[in-house]
Fold each of these.
Amino acid sequence: MTGSSSDDSEVPSGATRRSDATRAAILHAARERFAADGYERATIRSIAKDARIDPSMVMRYYGNKEGLFAAAVSVDLRLPDLSAVPRAEMGRALVRHFLRLWEGNGELTAMLRVGATNQAGAERLRDIFREQLLPVVGRVCPDPEQVPARAALCASQVLGMSLTRYVLRFPPAAAMAPEELEAWLGPTLQRYLTAPSP
Amino acid sequence: MTGSSSDDSEVPSGATRRSDATRAAILHAARERFAADGYERATIRSIAKDARIDPSMVMRYYGNKEGLFAAAVSVDLRLPDLSAVPRAEMGRALVRHFLRLWEGNGELTAMLRVGATNQAGAERLRDIFREQLLPVVGRVCPDPEQVPARAALCASQVLGMSLTRYVLRFPPAAAMAPEELEAWLGPTLQRYLTAPSP
DNA sequence: TCTGTGTGCCAACGCCTGTTGACTACGCTA
DNA sequence: TAGCGTAGTCAACAGGCGTTGGCACACAGA
């Protein structure tokens, strides 16, 4: 607010600050807390405690809680180009990709938890859907008018399984093996992507 | 705590208290707030304000916030007996039932929002799954071992669509007509219920 | 008419929250 | 060695939270 901020969101490549370790620790702790507790219950104080620093450091480096969330959770789905895989296997490929993504990091769980209760979090998820999933579906769907609906259907099944498996932890959903999930959900997404409109 | 409580959870049928209108107003406001804001951000103060009474009345009638939530959100899915519908139409019947349910009241949205961030809320949803969905699926699935997984798959698709449509409000999901959704999701649930294990 | 119980409001409690500003310690450069 | 910017700590703020206890009124049964 006073203008003393260094506004260093873009540091020349290779440059390091003494505070880089602290910043990383904050982001790491923030990701874990947001994923475990959601936005409201993940307090700056608890995050700072996990990172073994003072809460005021969080404010100094990220401005406020919203800024911290934005910095901690940057979701790049790294979706594959579906037009490069055999048309009959797109569904399974997509499911496999998402499963790896969810197993690999907590950011997606954090996004889901936060999106469910926080307005800004929900908007963030809508952005991801629009900017990352829509184009991929658009490339394999001939009729542009059907792209949004088909993409939304895919999202509903993927997010639904993530919700029941990682957030709500329904025992059967949490217990299923990835290959099993791929075999069940693959054909569903395949149909949403390629079946004629019902 | 002092013993002055009337402990009147069970009032003889037909008996009315002067406070019944107030109690109803509290529950109504609580349902709306929990659905709109989730557990943490739906404050007792805001609920009381909506109901135009003092926050202390909420405490008097429902003990504490958890008690209020339990009283406000009692989910009975009223699932149909699937063995009574033609086997080929079970999927669509289930989807149609859930869509009506979601459109009709905010309790399910509240449960979903709360379940995503609150431990007790998630457990509540697991209870509903176990006590209400599992038996229904069990009745139409010949192999008892497959029942939990198939039911979880159905839940994942139904909850996923509810999430993207009512909570995250992905525009394409929110815009689709119920009949359209039924046509898309019906075959998915049908497969989860009846297709041979992959 | 008196009395007791249910109903409601008010003010306050202790705690936790995000956020701020002042103050000290380090490490580089001149 | 002096000076300066950065890194970090500490204590406090204003406000919101769930929750509590006391007090005032209304209405029923005696």
Amino acid sequence: MLVALLDGGSRPASELAAIAGVRPPTASAHLARLVEGGLLVDRRIGRHRYFELADASVADAVEALQRIAPRRPVTSLRQSTTAVRLAELRSCYDHLAGRVALVIADALVQEGSVAPLTSGRVGEITGSGPLARRLGLDDEPPSAPGRRPAVRGCLDWTERRPHLAGVAGARIRLAFLDRGWAVGLSQDRSLRLTDAGRAVLADLA
Amino acid sequence: MLVALLDGGSRPASELAAIAGVRPPTASAHLARLVEGGLLVDRRIGRHRYFELADASVADAVEALQRIAPRRPVTSLRQSTTAVRLAELRSCYDHLAGRVALVIADALVQEGSVAPLTSGRVGEITGSGPLARRLGLDDEPPSAPGRRPAVRGCLDWTERRPHLAGVAGARIRLAFLDRGWAVGLSQDRSLRLTDAGRAVLADLA
DNA sequence: GGAACGGTTCGCCCTGCGGCGAATCGTCGT
DNA sequence: ACGACGATTCGCCGCAGGGCGAACCGTTCC
């Protein structure tokens, strides 16, 4: 859940429960402790309760732990193929992660639509190259202060460098799913590129 | 135990057990896991086994966690007085920590005997002011490569800035104990300044 | 060669933690 | 006013993890 909040956004308890793969009561208990321990702060809005990281120092700690967390060794064939698929393309809560996600992020940087990404740093859409237009990022409104940032670097735990999160990251994921460029395999968070999606990526080269 | 190794030194299992306040079998089990998990590396020399942090990234993670670890709130009078004593002066494994330790470190920096401290960075004795001579630091041999550094900054968890560790830090602690400037209170790691010790500190001002 | 010592293994105890289902509370939509 | 829904509380279960004492292994020192 802490990793899911690394982009600085706020998420309600139910969403964090789904991300962590636990039932609401379990998530509630964990979140209560995280708030009590000062790692998270919460905002109550109506019947929802939104959580976010309390502090940049918390993000630092989570990222530092991510850096030393080993990809755990593979112990079965099934795990192996799952790991391969996850490394290729997966959902990182609401945006894309994995090798494919980095190809996309690199291309956006290349064409000047976003500034080079740094893990945890926020930014804006800085241009509208062909890829940005194709993904619908060119009509992205600049983030208001306090709102979720348009662009944010999120450390990719398979590739060890930041991919693109924030509102733009979420929009890219939606584009891939809505237009049938990728399909989700319900079991885990891995995604599979369709032929259409592969064609889109081929255009980048 | 990880915190105890933050200065980049190597320590044998028995010493780490004592620092952590657990029995040898317990320490052995923990150390085995830390090595297996790649957080520590070990070197066997004769019947001893020396452990040290595997990597700068491990030190980063430990320090990042230290920064967000709250001083836990006081729940009893006894805890309170203990906490006050610990904040004043305590052993941080083999060197001194707490408010008094920072006064000493500041004075050494002031007189040019050591360079300003940064958490985790190593250094050497750079001069021999009156305090350094009084503490016996002026005959400190420069650290050979691979050996324990003469000077090292170690983040102080009560004061939140680095105090002096390394060989010099250890020597200062010994000086305080040997010359009766401070006495250990066996229960915890806190130390109490004696009148003689208070006089030494008064000289600094 | 034998005692001392550092470290590990083994077997055991027990606490506390993580998880869930069912029930409850409070807010929102209609 | 009422049902749907997000979130929390309560009670319960199961287990794994932390810790220890005793015994054991290998090195060192005299």
